[in-house]
Target: Sulfatase
Amino acid sequence: MKEFQLKTTARTYSILKIAARYSLSALMLLFFQGHCQERKPSLEKPNVIIIFADDLGYGDLSSYGHPTIRTTNLDQMAAEGQKWTNFYVGASVCTPSRAALLTGRLPIRSGMASSMNRVLFPDSHNGLPQSELTLAEQMKKGGYATAAIGKWHLGHKAEYLPTSHGFDSYYGIPYSNDMDNITPFRSAGGYFSFWKSEERKDINTFNVPLMRDTEIIERPAEQHTITKRYTEEAIKFINEKKEEPFFLYFAHNLPHVPLFASKDFEGTSPRGIYGDVVEEIDHSVGQILDELKKTGLDKNTIVVFTSDNGPWLIMNEEGGSAGLLRSGKGSTWEGGMREPCIFWAPGRIEPGIVTDLGSTLDLFTTFSKIAGVDIPNDRIVDGVDLAPVLFNNKTSTRKDMFYYRGDKLYAVRVGDYKAHFLTQEPYSGPEVEEHKTPLLYNLSIDPSEKYDISEANPEIMAKMMKVVKDHNEKMVKGPDMLKDRG
Amino acid sequence: MKEFQLKTTARTYSILKIAARYSLSALMLLFFQGHCQERKPSLEKPNVIIIFADDLGYGDLSSYGHPTIRTTNLDQMAAEGQKWTNFYVGASVCTPSRAALLTGRLPIRSGMASSMNRVLFPDSHNGLPQSELTLAEQMKKGGYATAAIGKWHLGHKAEYLPTSHGFDSYYGIPYSNDMDNITPFRSAGGYFSFWKSEERKDINTFNVPLMRDTEIIERPAEQHTITKRYTEEAIKFINEKKEEPFFLYFAHNLPHVPLFASKDFEGTSPRGIYGDVVEEIDHSVGQILDELKKTGLDKNTIVVFTSDNGPWLIMNEEGGSAGLLRSGKGSTWEGGMREPCIFWAPGRIEPGIVTDLGSTLDLFTTFSKIAGVDIPNDRIVDGVDLAPVLFNNKTSTRKDMFYYRGDKLYAVRVGDYKAHFLTQEPYSGPEVEEHKTPLLYNLSIDPSEKYDISEANPEIMAKMMKVVKDHNEKMVKGPDMLKDRG
Model:
């Protein structure tokens, strides 16, 4: 059995090789000019679509090494675009990771990282504070139509929902798809043992709401068709807004457990239900890209695909894989925070593999600038502008990454090196291991974090400690928005 | 910094998609006809090149998920060809793996698997028996010119060398590149502690010979330039033989330790010296494919790239990575025996990702048939013909795989399932764990062999035990060729 894969001829390769070598600027100019004739008012403002998966691991796409998950569309997107291999999210669990993406700030600054709760729950009182400025608000300032589709998880009360944070509209499940009914977890003897029961296959068990803007329109949300319906909604939005620049934040609820696939996908992947679900998301990506091509919008749209955090390993076969990276969701090892990431904009983004550092934190800055909107100077923004890497074959200006767990700094990456001050298994309770001499790894040489080189490299560690000291001195933590519940 | 990656346009994709859907037979016919006009005597006989890396792991190519090793040429080869994700070697260490590839038979049958030594050494008395029939001998019968370049490791005495096994010529190091001088290992307090010493960077430490046919022409072989010189030799052979069908067995000595790269590559990979070496092999593959394209031979040549066994994990940063697979070289876990494998023949081999089972054992049968030569019926041949998968979008007829360590059957795969009867860490000494109830994994769902499902699936196990019983009943072991040394 053969899966169709991206392919090219030697000739295409050569042409693009030349284009890549001598910069794509001429080609890009052509596309820009082509676009001018199509859509007048926004000629410097490409549309932006962020597709965000939930709990998908670094190793879960075929182009990132999975042997049995067949992500034909994402692989093609990667070959036509940029496949980033050192791309990080702002936190290893849902809520703070999403806050990081939308604000461009480490969640500790916005109060979306707490010592008490790692994420928001249906009984949480708060959400992302109004004082935070979101990417959607930025894009609106730049004249963009904005929509959020899918998982939100930054507060389910009206004042915290997408429509209060710069999005013209919202359609989706406002938190995780497993979150709204604790009875079955109790009856199974706890959350994790519940996942062996047959009840996990019943959407009624979870009772999560589907919302339009601030109204619940379905409960429990029919999760078998949720990916399909999100996609239809996204395509509708693209078509409705094709005359103006638009920003679409499309955050899938899957492949977070519980796993549900539509009839067309259920039972089709050799990888089992997890594969069915990922392949349905891959299909959804294909539908979005096809729609852009069909409408000619591919010439003026930037699409990014990534995921909110690493695989939920404790879910066994129903959790994903971080590939060669260590650990997964909930952890500050690489598997928790490094994600597949693909940037796509044919004719604009130069195809290739990018090994430079990047982060969802950078999307705020990158797209604000593309929309012609200033970065606020009344607060620290952690993002850098990735445009030079995306469009001009330059090196990323991101040189470090801070790995927080809750409100504590566990690790830092500076260049190739990562130092761990604290380590902890993702879900093993409160056993934190403190490293008086921080563990040190060279991630370029040792991506699996196996070989501690701290002993031989005190001078590298000293340099890193300076970066950390500087970071800590400037840190202003926001008031904890996750702690109040019930 | 951006690495050039394979890319295509949407249009190329669509054209090839249609071609892929409606079978490439028409296109293939065209190529065959084109070929008829070029080279008369061998119109149905494409050239065959097998490129075989040494100790390269499943996760060591960018297209198989490595974040910092940049294998541009192999990735392009994979996108133009077939990327196999369930492809196995015949054993998890050098000598028996190579015997399996060249004979199409499990090494236990040819006596190339032993309870005493896992591989041949410079003081070994024997090698691959003359009674074995090699793929080279088959190709010769079919009228092919044959050459072996690189590592042999099936006996270094004249009667066991390539020129005694069907190859017209041989150029290479006859065994592993670390093998010929035990003094430094002794002085360092043993083989594995030696690998922390600076001596590992000196070619004189290893004193391995470079041979032409049966003569030593250089000692110690200059290993910094060995990949480069092998490649030059390969290109020379291709050009000399371009008027007749040829079979080239091109077995790199690297990335087996000691790691040596040429000046152009040393210090260039973010992955360190291991990356330098793999990227130089990748460059070599690019040179071979470019030469085929330049001479028009790409229209009539099948190229296969794979490796002899998994990564040598005990070498730490100087060993490779099995990606998401468990363990590595020396082990019967997947990381020891599943390898990257790419088949390439533009216009003949239908591009795609293949998740079906395949093995180096199958190359004997597949290429013998392509050369029009019968499979011998006086012995058991373990290979199947992969042509239906390669050329006609059919399902592989390989349904099982036997995992031997030395002369003992440790595990078996039947369809998606793998049962382990014995497990053992690759290099931990003699501690074999025997499983009264064999461990059972579904490799399609659980490629990392984490979740033993034996308890819930006695009926699957019963079916597999039947396959094993049948296999054992028919097994005739060859006399041990590895045991005599010194």
Q: What stands out?
A: Chain B has 14 helices and 15 strands. Chain B has two domains: 23-33+41-399, 403-474. Residues 23-33+41-399 of chain B form a domain with the Alkaline Phosphatase, subunit A fold (CATH 3.40.720.10).
